[in-house]
Amino acid sequence: MDRIYLDHAATSPMHPNVIDTMMRVMSNDFGNPSSIHAFGREARHVLDEARSSIAASIGAGRNEIIFTSGGTEADNTAIIGVANAYKEQGKHIITTEIEHHAVLHTCQYLEKSGFEVTYLPVNEAGLISIADLKAALRDDTILVSVMFGNNEVGTIQPIAEIGQVLKDHQAIFHTDAVQAYGLISIDVRGLGVDLLSVSAHKINGPKGIGFLYIREGLKLNPHLYGGEQERKRRAGTESVPAIAGFSEAVLIAQSTMEKKKEQYKQFKDVLLAVFDEADVQYEINGSMEQSLPHLLNVSFPGTNVESMLVNMDLAGVAVSSGSACTAGSIDPSHVLVAMFGKDSERTKNSIRFSFGLNNTEEEVRQAAETTVKIVNRLVRR
Q: What is the CATH number of domain 4-12+256-380?
């Protein structure tokens, strides 16, 4: 049985060029980049080149990028680092109800440490209201953290508008761009973003590596203590092969961005066309217009998400119910609860399809036809 992978929002396969780059660096550049001898300098050169190319991808300076172990560490470092650095100016933080748990759980931790957090609601499209943000802002607000694009329903938040609102306010603006990066053009200067989190394994890079953009001049208390790596902001010897692979993945993502957007739109059209032709009842969660190109979250009335996932997997189609970080949990998606309410059937019958490397239109059509068969079988029970 040929398997079809449509869960790229959870993680993506590594691009062959990324693997080749990492193998070359692992073989040739094994030195510690903090060492002053030739081996160390060679590794440092790889690190510097990667930092420069990654910084350029978001319009940042190379000294504004620190490497982390992934999106979770980048989010934690940004939120806790800023909270502790600016707590003398206030202890109020604003975020949203639909953030990734790397943000939500970090904010909950800070609440236990004496900070106050406002969680902005969203509408049924998954969008926050700028009016709600303005109303929530206070003189003692020191941080606003709003994700760029949601990892479960794909909704893209009005990041530039938020940046404008915060332009003349003391609050630092952080965005979790883990799902959006590599598919949406990002210019941190134009957007007014102060901190931005990214993870490599979402863009066909290796797992265990990410970066945090920190605007020059921003104070940030380190979250890890040890050596003076990453400009004293993230202790620990850098993973040079992973960073080199990350950089290669970034170059590929930047050069194929427009092509992927067009391709993934076609995939969405094919998926929905098959559902329509089969007269399957479904509802789209989120906004088709203001959504990440690779992600589509669909509710199938009369089905159950656990049964859907098991049957899809048995049929060779890998999809998800939402965030991979809550896989196995019996709790409904906090994102769908925020959008539709805890009693909505959509929280119990929604599936996330997400496209990426090596997917073809034929695969998507086959997956859609398989979905139709399973939905019809479950609804008839």
A: 3.90.1150.10
Closest CA to 269 of 285, 293, 248, 240: 293
- Per residue in 212-260, pLDDT tens? 999 999 999 988 888 878 877 887 989 999 999 999 999 999 999 999 9
The identity of residue 246, as a single letter, is F
User: How many whole angstroms separate alpha carbon 177 and alpha carbon 277?
Assistant: 35
**Could you report the per-residue pLDDT of 163-193, keeping only the tens digit for each?**
999 999 999 999 999 999 999 999 999 999 9
Quickly list DSSP for 174-194.
Answer: EEE-TTTBTTB---HHHHT-S
- Residue 330 pLDDT: 56
pLDDT tens-place string over residues 81-115: 999 999 999 999 999 999 999 999 999 999 999 99
Q: Which of these, 173, 155, 24, lies nearest to 86 by C-alpha position?
A: 173
Per-residue pLDDT at 133:
98
Structure-block tokens of residue 49: 């080149």
Q: How far apart are CA 206 and CA 329, in angstroms?
A: 26
- Per-residue pLDDT, averaged over 338-360, amounts to 96
Q: Say which residues have a Cβ less than 8 Å from residue 42's Cβ, sequence separation at least 6.
A: 28, 29, 31
User: Annotated active-site positions, please?
Assistant: 325
**Distance from CA of residue 199 to its chain's centroid?**
7
CB of 6 closer than 8 Å to CB of 318? yes
Q: Which residue has the tokens 């790889």?
A: 46
- Percent of the chain beyond pLDDT 70? 97
Helices (H), 278-353: 305-314, 334-340
- In tens, the pLDDT along 27-72 reads 999 999 999 999 999 999 999 999 999 999 999 999 999 999 999 9
Helices (H), the chain: 16-28, 38-56, 71-86, 101-112, 130-136, 159-165, 188-191, 229-232, 240-277, 305-314, 334-340, 361-380
* 32 CB burial (10 A radius; 0-12, 13-18, 19+): middle
Where are the chain's structural domains?
Answer: 4-12+256-380
